[in-house]
Amino acid sequence: MARRIGRYTVQMDEQICIEGYAAVAGKKEAGGPIASFFDALHEDTTLGQSSWEKAEAQLQYEAASCALKKSGYQSEDLDYILAGDLLNQCISSTFGLRELGI
User: Fold this and answer.
1) What backbone torsions phi and psi does residue 40 show, to the nearest 5 degrees?
2) What does the pLDDT look like over 17-65, one tens digit per residue?
């Protein structure tokens, strides 16, 4: 399905497609004009977590779990996942997704 062509680069042998997607947001987005487009909204700015980073990780986990559910796949069906966050550090993505084992 893919072959490694560099330390951090893989080349897909087949076309890829997006089978599932989701967006989860916090308090500010919940009060905004596009709130109805999110899959889940939270009224608590930290989602009950002890830090912003933990809240961001929780948002990532919920978004990935929702996308999996919508697609009909399980985490073990996936080889790769693309994720990011507004902090441009991706640490929230890493911690939020590690429980899924992708």
Assistant:
1) -150, 145
2) 888 899 999 889 999 999 999 999 998 888 899 988 888 889 999 999 9
In a 3-state reduction of DSSP, which class is residue 77?
Answer: helix
- As given in the structure block, the two tokens for residue 62 are 């919920």
| DSSP E strand stretches across the chain | 2-4, 10-12, 24-25, 40-41
pTM (two decimals): 0.82
84's tokens: 């990011």
**Which residue bears the tokens 């997607």?**
21
For residue 19, what are the contacts with CB-CB under 8 A and spacing of at least 6? 71, 72, 73
Using a 10 angstrom Cβ sphere, with 0-12 exposed, 13-18 middle and 19 or more buried, the burial of residue 15 is exposed
